[in-house]
Design goal:
The complex is a heterodimer.
Chain A (H helix, E strand, L loop, with lengths): L7 H9 L7 H12 L5 H18 L7 H13 L7 E3 L2 E6 L3 H9 L8 E5 L2 H4 L2 H11 L2 E2 H4 E7 L4 E6 L1 H6 L4 H11 L5 E5 L2 E5 L5 H12 L2 E3 L6 E7 L2 E7 L3 H5 L10 E2 L2 H8 L1 H18 L6 H12 L19 H7 L2 H11 L2 E2 L4 H6 L19
Antiparallel strand pairs in A: 1-2, 3-11, 3-12, 4-9, 5-6, 6-8, 7-8, 10-11
Chain B lengths: L20 E2 L5 H7 L50 E10 L4 H10 L11 H17 L1 H17 L12 E5 L3 E5 L5 E4 L1 H10 L2 H6 L13 E7 L8 E2 L5 E2 L2 H21 L4 H19 L20 H5 L5 H6 L7 E8 L7 E5 H6 L1 E5 L5 H10 L7 E5 L5 E3 L6 H7 L5 E5 L5 E5 L9 E9 L4 E3 L4 H4 L7 E5 L4 H11 L20 H10 L4 E3 H8 L19 E3 H7 L7 E4 L17 E5 L2 E4 L4 H4 L7 H32 L12 H27 L10 H27 L5 H8 L5 H8 L3 E2 L1 E2 L2 E2 L24 E2 L9 H36 L3 E2 L5 E2 L5 E3 L19 H10 L2
Parallel strand pairs in B: 9-17, 10-16
Antiparallel strand pairs in B: 2-6, 3-4, 4-5, 7-8, 9-18, 10-17, 11-14, 12-13, 12-14, 15-16, 15-18, 19-20, 21-22, 22-23, 24-27, 25-26, 28-29, 29-30
Helix pairs in contact in B: 2-4, 3-4, 7-8, 12-13, 16-20, 17-20, 21-22, 22-24
Classes of the chains: A alpha+beta, B alpha+beta.
């Protein structure tokens, strides 16, 4: 054999020289695949040349109207989506909006999603412990007095609200009557005396009107005794071989602070919350993940690059902006572009008193004024002289 | 940017490109200066039908009828641009669209000194910050301005003159009041509003977001109203001979009438209340003229009760000026008709009816090389295809051939330099479109093939990108008119360039239905073809291909279907892929049941063609790899030839699904009945437990929900099990089975629905619930929750449904249709917003992704710069490259 196989190190070194020429992902893939193969110098050279050539053949063309391609690639499959609520392994507890409504929710960057959810992963040492998972789930779930009360009565005569607690419920949740008392003391800052008598707690207040008393009773019922604010329900589900907690209602900040929780994997499905707690880059990743989840659930194939693009458009200026009138489309510089989208008159009036000017740098503006669009073949500023 | 037609359009009026538009508010001075006359009377025409001097149709404003001449510029109606007039309002009124901004200003400024209610220190801080933010962060500047407004409005004494600040109330739509301390309201009439606004210094306005050099707030209180020329509000001639004025003219007439009444009332010294009433009426009429959909319920109406169209209504909404006339324009050189299939066309082609080809034209310059053809076309004229409709002389004059008798004489006259508007001919490039245009594959470039008949013809493989079928769909065709447009259409939009979609980097064009079952039948084992048959099949191939020696030589020469397919594969092509029939085999190279496609050096060794290998929207399929490796041009030719060949084979063999296709052996029928009985019994047992209260609720659900879920689970098992039985017992030669297995149409589940039980019908994803009180139909006892009473269909299509089952099936079907309709509008709007948010984003020359303001959205597109439509399912196929390089030595 005339040709010598290269040593592993040599192969590695030669491929490393492509860093900067090819994206890191491709270089790594080359490294992976070629490290297990025995190649000669000539072969390696040809492989590298072929990959670089193929890469440059696949690079996007300058001027490509990639925004429109993205919008279409996300929008077109949405027509094929089925409005179907999805159930977690037959559990109705978490029937959540999926498909088109959820997609619209994401691109709208709704402040409050229809069903705010979290997926909580536990640290490896607890992840396989079902009991521990249930323990955590119990702990984070908001428990109000309503959940642990057997009955609640109003003694109009003495202006007293009498809560009879359910001991079983208390024990099940690992609480004592004292916890309940403390909770009541904490919020009843204004007036009222709390007295404990066996299983019953009475709250005496100074108001007399029936309606006021009823209002106070409702407030007492809603008083949080334990758990994390905002988390309405928590459910332990076995996912592959570990126990995961799904919640309805979110409070990412508080949950991340729990000892048992794996903060690197735990997520809230509320984009704004993620942006506030973890920052805008995290929000970008969340948008991509959520979009992908929605599309995958419907069996629709959309390249991640498009989802990245949507996420970047929504987050590039540091704030989560919705796709639409109150976000990206409404914040355009061009008054005509804004007027052509929605709320035409208001935008024109605003442009008038602010003294805005239209410079025709975007697509709609150009179409409106009968120009070539400054994108695609219109991006090129060279042209043969017309006869 | 260069515009080829810059020097002159029709009538030699120079065409110019707008560089910039500055928006501003017209000041009374400007309105007066730009007006050519004051409109003083509400009369429009006198008895003789001539426009009244000083009226709304005064000839000085411009003319819109052909005979008259404009008294201002002297041009006729084609060239007179129209000239504005004005109405001097007796008393000022507030511009309705500016009520909100004025209200904001009034609250933020002092009625006494007119200053913005900020301390000097605050003022300095805010004005600096606003100036800084304005440059790049419009949105932040806006947000700061809102904060300034809030701050200033909250002050109860003026920091400049110390005057106490009254509360300003806005009584919608346009009445302002000052609320004094005792809660007494005093009216702030437009005159006083105007005086107040006049006092505000320019610098303070800037902090409120106004640009005082272009828009002073007092200008938003109108003292003089501009009157648009008649070109903007043309009268129309009714068929009865009457003229009917435009809505704007109507509104202006009313304004003039009230203006006059108000003036008379003031001059004659009428009581203040009646003057105020008239003033308010004037205000209301000016408001409805500008916007007739203001909240508050006042709406001017036409005599026929129809609400008048205000200026705002002309601009607003889908049919308004912006979305209806400016963003979307009507075009010439287009055609629309019903579509129908033609498998003998290329996927690049479109069949155009002769009638349409005669109407649509292409401008062809006469040259030395085409002069003979052009002469013949002129002689043929507009009636005979291929002909021509017009001839353009070198000095740009158009000669209509429709009215020329001496066409052969004209034909002799033409020479290079002339142009001919000839009919659409074979080989022309046109754009073809089907609505809704959801992605760029909804408008592609096709090559014209003029055909007899009255429909557009297209190849079946291009149906998926257009999402077209032939149940009456119509499509549009556009003829590009310039060489640049034609070149762009051909290079960028030709169908073959879209075989791979940019959505996921896989083929979107491909086989469906008969092509798939045909591919399977052709390729499967035991399919041998005689020399005659093979010759006929190969006749479908338009490329120069070589067929192998026959697989069987004696007693007669016979070729296998795989040999025929192999003839179309490139010699250096190697490929393996699992087919839809894969079941037990693990190793493609040791499988003798056709479960894997194995192509060795262009020879199809095993495997059948099916949905997974030649179907549309299948990634990493045979079709995908062929197109990817050998290019779009090859891909197109392969699809053209292969698909036509498959159809020829199907023609030869025949393929009809009939009642026989649904026959099952006796034993299968028995088992199906058993299964049905078993699970329905199980369902009733569940119900029994539910009624006895023995059914326990699952966590997080009510008992009823648990029951519903369990019933659904139980009943759906019938269909599942039935599918399995159908798979086991149905003849493998049954058309239904072939279609389901190869992926051509339907599934085994559908087969089970036809032969076993249709299954549960649903409304909004649930079992039937509504109808009569406590029951779905009067055939059931109230409260019946049994399967039959809630839309479970035991019957099947082969044996027929009972009337009740039929009803449930129909209702479920209707529910599905309604849902689809609802969804379409929702997703349409979502897409419009997506497009609107992202349409300006492009790839710059440096590889970054930018928007129209050159702001960088991504530094490298998709983090690696790869175009999805040029990728292999979103990736660069490194493995394939290595294999190809290493195996080639």
């Amino acid at each position: 054999m005339a040709e010598q196989f290269l040593s592993q190190e040599e192969v590695k070194a030669r491929i490393e020289s492509l860093r900067g020429v090819l994206p890191a992902k491709l270089v790594n893939e080359l490294l992976n695949r070629l490290s297990s193969l025995r190649v000669s110098g000539r072969q390696l050279e040809r492989v590298m040349k072929a990959v670089v050539a193929e890469y440059y053949k696949s690079v996007v063309d300058p001027g490509e109207a990639i925004g429109i391609v993205t919008a279409q690639s996300v929008g077109e499959p949405s027509t094929q989506m089925i409005l179907r609520t999805f159930h977690y392994a037959g559990l109705r507890e978490f029937s959540m909006a999926l498909g088109l409504p959820r997609l619209i929710e994401i691109i709208d960057a709704r402040r409050k999603p229809q069903v705010p959810r979290m997926t909580i992963y536990l640290k490896p040492e607890y992840a396989h412990n079902e009991e521990k998972a249930h323990e955590v789930a119990k702990r984070i779930q908001t428990i109000t007095i309503e959940n642990v009360a057997k009955s609640i009565d109003i003694d109009y005569f003495n202006s007293t609200i009498v809560v009879t607690l359910d001991e079983d419920a208390l024990n099940y949740r690992g609480l004592t009557i004292n916890d309940v008392k403390k909770a009541l003391d904490r919020i009843k800052g204004k007036t009222g005396k709390v007295t404990v008598e066996g299983n019953t707690i009475s709250v005496t207040v100074e108001v007399q009107e029936i309606s006021a008393l009823k209002r106070i009773r409702d407030k007492i019922l809603q008083t949080k005794v334990a758990g994390i604010r905002g988390i309405k329900k928590a459910l332990v589900v076995k996912e592959s071989d570990e126990y995961v907690i799904y919640t309805e209602g979110t409070n990412l900040e508080a949950v991340l602070l729990l000892d048992e929780v794996d903060p690197t994997r735990t997520i809230s499905h509320d984009i704004h919350e993620v942006a506030e707690v973890l920052g805008i880059e995290a929000a970008r990743s969340m948008i991509i993940r959520e979009l992908k989840e929605v599309l995958d659930a419907q069996g629709l194939d959309v390249d991640v690059r498009h989802l990245m693009m949507v996420a970047d458009v929504m987050t590039w200026d540091g704030k989560v902006r919705q796709i639409g009138r109150h976000g990206v489309a409404g914040q355009k510089v061009s008054p005509l572009a804004r007027a052509a989208f929605e709320v035409t008159v208001k935008n024109l009036i605003e442009a008038a008193y602010k003294g805005e000017s239209e410079r025709f740098r975007g697509v709609v503006e150009s179409i409106i004024s009968g120009r070539y669009v400054p994108i695609g073949t219109g991006y090129v500023e060279l042209m043969l002289e017309h006869p | 940017m260069s515009y080829s037609n810059q020097t002159g359009g029709e009538d030699n009026i120079p065409l110019k490109v707008i560089k910039e538009i500055t928006f501003s508010v017209l000041s009374p001075d400007v309105i007066r200066k730009m007006s050519v006359m004051e409109v003083t009377t509400s009369e429009t025409y006198d008895e003789a039908g001539n426009p009244v001097k000083g009226g709304l149709m005064d000839r000085r404003l411009g003319v819109d009828e052909p005979e008259a001449r404009c008294e201002t510029c002297g041009n006729d109606w084609r060239r007179c641009p129209g000239h504005f007039g004005r109405i001097e309002l007796t008393r000022p009124v507030i511009h309705p669209e500016f009520v909100k901004p004025i209200y904001d200003i009034l609250r933020a400024t002092c009625p006494n000194c007119g200053r913005l209610k900020l301390t000097d220190e605050e003022y300095k801080r805010y004005s600096e910050r606003i100036k800084r933010l304005r440059r790049h962060w419009r949105v932040l500047a806006d947000r700061l301005i809102t904060r300034v407004k809030k701050r200033a409005a909250a002050r109860s004494t003026c920091p400049h003159c110390g005057a106490p600040q009254p509360k300003i109330k806005l009584d919608k739509p346009f009445k302002f009041y000052i609320e004094s301390e005792g809660g007494k309201l005093t009216r702030l009439d437009p005159i006083r509003v105007r005086e107040w606004l006049e006092k505000i210094p320019d610098d303070d306005l800037e902090l409120l977001g106004w640009n005082p050099s272009l828009a002073r707030p007092e200008w938003a209180v109108l003292t003089v109203l501009p009157v648009p020329p008649p070109q903007v509000r043309p009268s129309i001639q009714l068929p009865s001979g009457q003229t009917s004025a435009d809505d704007l003219t109507h509104a202006l007439t009313t304004i003039l009438r009230y203006n006059e009444k108000l003036r008379n009332a003031i001059e004659s010294g009428s009581p203040t209340t009646s003057i105020l009433d008239l003033w308010d009426s004037l205000q209301a009429n000016v408001a409805t003229y500008i916007d007739n959909e203001l909240p508050g319920g006042i709406q001017a109406r036409h005599r026929s009760k129809r609400p008048l169209k205000g200026i705002a209504q002309r601009l607003k909404g889908k049919e308004g000026r912006f979305r209806g006339s400016l963003s979307g324009k009507r075009v010439e050189f287009s055609a629309r008709t019903v579509i129908s299939p033609d498998p003998n066309l290329s996927i690049n082609e479109v069949g155009v009816p002769m009638d349409i080809a005669r109407e649509l034209t292409v401008v062809e310059p006469v040259t030395e090389w085409n002069i003979d053809l052009m002469r013949q076309l002129i002689i043929n004229g507009p009636e005979t295809w291929p002909g021509a409709n017009r001839v353009i002389t070198p000095d740009g004059k158009k000669i209509e051939l429709k009215v020329r008798r001496d066409r052969s004489e004209l034909a002799q006259q033409i020479q290079p330099g002339w142009k001919v508007e000839r009919h659409l001919m074979d080989g022309d490039y046109v754009l073809f479109n089907r609505q809704p245009s959801l992605h760029k594959m909804s408008m592609m470039c096709h090559v014209v093939k003029v055909l007899p008949g009255r429909t557009f013809r297209l190849h079946l493989a291009v149906c998926p990108p257009y999402n077209a079928d032939f149940d009456g769909d119509e499509m549009n065709l556009h003829v590009p008119q310039t060489p640049e447009a034609r070149a762009e259409a051909k290079m960028l939009m030709l169908v073959q360039n879209f075989i791979i979609t940019p959505r996921y980097g896989g083929p979107i064009i491909g086989a469906r239905q008969d092509y798939i079952s045909g591919g399977y039948l052709l390729a499967r084992k035991g399919n041998v073809l005689t020399k005659d048959a093979v010759s006929y099949l190969m006749g479908a191939v338009r490329d120069d291909v070589q067929l192998d020696e026959p697989a069987i030589m004696h007693p007669i020469e016979l070729w296998t279907g795989k040999q025929v397919i192999s003839a179309l594969l490139p010699r250096d092509f190697n490929f393996t892929q699992a087919t839809a029939f894969r079941s037990t085999c693990k190793d493609p190279y040791r499988c003798d049941t056709d479960e894997y496609i194995v192509v060795v050096n262009g020879y199809l060794a095993t495997g059948v063609l099916d949905k997974k290998s030649i179907g549309a929207e299948q990634v990493d399929s045979l079709l995908h790899v062929l197109v990817k490796r050998y290019g779009n041009e090859f891909g197109r030719r392969w699809i053209d030839s292969m698909f036509r060949l498959i159809l020829r084979f199907m023609d030869m063999r025949g393929f009809t699904m009939a009642l026989d296709s649904l026959n099952l052996p006796e034993e299968a029928m028995r088992r199906l009945d058993e299964i049905k009985d078993m699970y329905i019994k199980e369902a009733y047992e569940l119900l029994d437990r539910y009624y006895k209260g023995a059914l326990e609720a699952e966590p997080g659900k009510t008992v009823e929900e648990t029951l519903e879920d369990k019933l659904a689970e139980t009943l759906s098992k019938i269909r599942e099990e039935a599918s399995k039985i159908v798979d086991d017992y149905m003849s493998k030669e049954s058309e239904v089975y072939i279609m389901a297995k190869s992926g051509a149409r339907g599934s085994l589940l559908n087969a089970a629905q036809m032969t076993a039980a249709l299954g549960q019908q649903t409304i909004r994803g649930e079992r039937f619930r509504r109808g009569f009180t406590d029951r779905t139909l009067s055939h059931f006892p109230p409260g019946d929750k049994g399967p039959e009473a809630r839309g479970f269909v035991k019957g099947n299509f082969r044996d027929g449904l009972s009337p009740i089952e039929y009803f449930f099936h129909a209702a479920g079907g209707r529910d599905g249709l309604v849902e689809t309709a609802v969804r379409t509008s929702q997703s349409g709007y979502a897409q419009r917003r997506l497009i609107n948010a992202m349409q300006d984003i492009y790839i710059a020359y440096d590889g970054t992704v930018r928007d129209s303001q050159d702001a960088i959205i991504q530094f490298k597109y998709g983090e690696d710069g790869i175009d999805v439509s040029k990728s292999d399912h979103g990736k660069l196929n490194v493995e394939d490259i290595i294999r190809r390089v290493v195996t080639s030595g």
